[in-house]
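Worked example (supplementary).
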Amino acid sequence: MQTTLSINGTEHRLDLDTRVTLLDALRDHLGLCGSKKGCDHGQCGACTVLVGGRRINACLTLAVMHDGDEITTVEGLAEGADGGLSPLQRAFITHDGFQCGYCTPGQLCSATGMLGELAEGWPSHASADLDGNYELSQEELSERMSGNICRCSCYPGINAAIRDAAGAEGRK
Amino acid sequence: MRPFDYVRATDAAGASNAAQAANAAFIAGGTNLLDLMKLEVMAPEKLVDISRMGLDQVEEQGRDLRIGATVTNSDLAADLRVRARWPVLSRALLAGASGQLRNKATTGGNLLQRTRCPYFYDTDTPCNKRQPGEGCSALGGETRNHAILGTSAECIALHPSDMAVALRALDARVEVRVPDGAVTEHELGDFHRQPGDRPDRETVLNQGDLITSVLLPAPAGDRQVYRKVRDRASYAFALVSVAAVLRVEEGRIAHAAIGFGGLGTVPWRDPSVDELLTGERPTTALFDKAADLLLQGAETHGGDDFKPPLARRVLRAVLEEATA
Ligand SMILES: Cc1cc2nc3c(=O)[nH]c(=O)nc-3n(C[C@H](O)[C@H](O)[C@H](O)COP(=O)(O)OP(=O)(O)OC[C@H]3O[C@@H](n4cnc5c(N)ncnc54)[C@H](O)[C@@H]3O)c2cc1C
Ligand code: SF4
Ligand code: FES
Ligand code: FES
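After joint prediction of all chains, the assembly is encoded as:
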């Protein structure tokens, strides 16, 4: 089936079997292997990408359902004005936010989406009230990032990196 | 995954027409259906994509709220009207799944998500829900995540939704468009079917019936609490959850509607529990009596023996919080 995906600003026309997930389209058909396959069942977050700015699990959606959508993968996060790494990516290096690195692309895309949700005032399960003013406390951060599992358990570094990039360093 | 045709519907009539074929299914967020299709637990030959039909709006109707079937769990939880007047719904949604999944999961799809019974997922084991008449592997097997209310000799599968538990306490209704174009409304309490001898029939829907919206009446109580107990702090299904919608007047409970998750084969609510509480002054003795009533017909299976005492404690804690 003919499908057009706009990935990191570039349009790709693909002829795909309807069964191809967005994750497999990225990895196997477009050679964008940054997005990772951990569980293939929505349980780990390694495949997280942004669609229209929102984070989703690319393993649990069909590529043909995204005809015309704007998709950002980890490869696109680095394409800032200077072509360098995004502040979040740099913070992951500074704070040692990974060991094997397999979960990292998903962590980066998820954190990017999560910070957008926070800026929009979305509440979380950890929020004391639903008023829309949330600081990135450790409880909020752990809850909002719970969809990304790190097998190497690099959570201290991941948390520090995200809070640094969010400008929340030092807050409790 | 088995091969399937894919069509994208642009309106409700087109969607129902396309889905009338015997083995067609709607797909909304896809987070449950694709999971099951990968395992070939479900194998529709045709998918009708309803995600771009404009059913993604939340609209006020007088004091009520109409939630389109494809409104995502994230958007619904963050909706300012829901947060202000139906906070128990925001809380239940936020307690479910992960940020990524909630961005895809839809209102209709959440109601229709299938059980997480491990034998239902494992096509190498008998399961009456997958294949009626085959037998139930959970009976005599691993039963930590099974139902203790509304079960039958054929199936003890739990309904896993958090959202639906809050919707039951809020007296939500489900609007359905049938293929001939007629639109019907079901009380959520009449929408899901207990397993009986047909565990494969989970709702009142027939082939091609499309959920178009969920209707939320103005809340009957301002004291709303959702509490979910699970094996880890986040990103896990409920062992037990309780949604309470209460109104307290002059020290007495003037309205009580309590929904339960982790306990029933369908999102659970027991009118006798609500009746017992209504008109009474909140006391621990009263809350214990409510738990007695809730659990009098409960049947446990070994792995879920912890559920009655846990349900009792969670119910008491929620009622204490809601009447404080
Ligand atoms: C790892 C993981 C953890 C999860 N944790 C939780 C949790 O803690 N709590 C919780 O409540 N849920 C949880 N979920 C389940 C999640 O909430 C559901 O997968 C989701 O709500 C389903 O919505 P969907 O739009 O993706 O449905 P889909 O997968 O698109 O559809 C599900 C079913 O509904 C049918 N359908 C969808 N929309 C309509 C409609 N409008 N009319 C008629 N039929 C329709 C489809 O044909 C299909 O049979 C979890 C899921 C995963 C993968
Ligand atoms: S409890 Fe229901 S879903 Fe689970 S194995 Fe038995 S019949 Fe199947
Ligand atoms: S690979 Fe998608 S969530 Fe694990
Ligand atoms: S760094 Fe190895 S899985 Fe996270």
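Two points are worth noting when inspecting this output. Helices of chain A lie at 22-29, 74-77, 87-94, 104-119, 138-144, 155-165. The beta strands of chain A are 2-7, 10-15, 48-51, 54-57, 70-72.
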